[in-house]
Amino acid sequence: MNDRHPPVRAVYEDRVAVVTLASENPLNPLADDLVDALVAELRRIDADPAIRATVLTGSSKAFAAGADVKAMAPLDYAAAFRQDVIGRNWDAIRAHRKPLIAAVRGYALGGGCELAMLCDVVIAAEDARFGQPEVVLGIVPGAGGTQRLPRAVGKSLAMQMCLTGTSISAADALAAGLVSQVVPTDRLLAEATRLARSMAAHSLPVLLAIKEAVNRSFESSLSEGLLFERRQFHAGFALKDQKEGIAAFRERRDPAFADE
Ligand code: CO8
Fold it and tell me: Which pTM value belongs to this model?
């Protein structure tokens, strides 16, 4: 890692972390040192009781333009398998427990699009472009493109994007449900931070439980997911914050959550 140019920068302020992918190449190829630094930062955030939500963003040119193609070029099957390319650090991002908002400017391609889809909410600047161009390189998406993209945008558009390698605009991503909002490019970070703060106003254990429950909906049958949700709901009665939230509502005041 280049000490003078860390590939990931983080600012913690008022219960929210803003993590910026800041590779020397503004296209943010997802080199090992960048992804390792991202994983380390997300672990720090999970361990920090003062932080309740995170914005993940990139450069003005790209959220991330995908795997580091130059580093991938010399690999053969044995090396890829031995090094557990992608699996080695990608699952650690998925394991992040607190709300994670992707704020995408410019290109989110290949692993960059897959990284955005690993986040809980994706908001896009007007100039954002999303795509899975792996097919152009003669490879298959490797970090969720064939699995998360169809869940996000449906089979037809996912197939079109993966089989042609062509990208879609922010407006098309919004229409397809890949992103939850599109904002003017110069407002992106402010809007993403505002969104993170509106999450961070709530009780951390409740935020964690909601994230777990929504993610469970992608992994289980409806009846199992509903049972999981109901048990989370029941478990909420053990939280002081549940008593505080209900009392504050009844007393017409803001709740003071203690994350307990
Ligand atoms: N990896 C490494 N270097 C890259 C990458 C990349 N993904 N993208 C661009 N670069 C480099 C270029 O080689 C060039 O370097 P140099 O100046 O030394 O030649 C420099 O960045 C600038 O690039 P361009 O001149 O191409 O910039 P443009 O503004 O003209 O174009 C694009 C920008 C459209 C983003 C274009 O660079 C491009 O198409 N890049 C490749 C995008 C791509 O194919 N991404 C998918 C990669 S495969 C993948 O992501 C598999 C996912 C696996 C999961 C990964 C988990 C870690």
Answer: 0.97
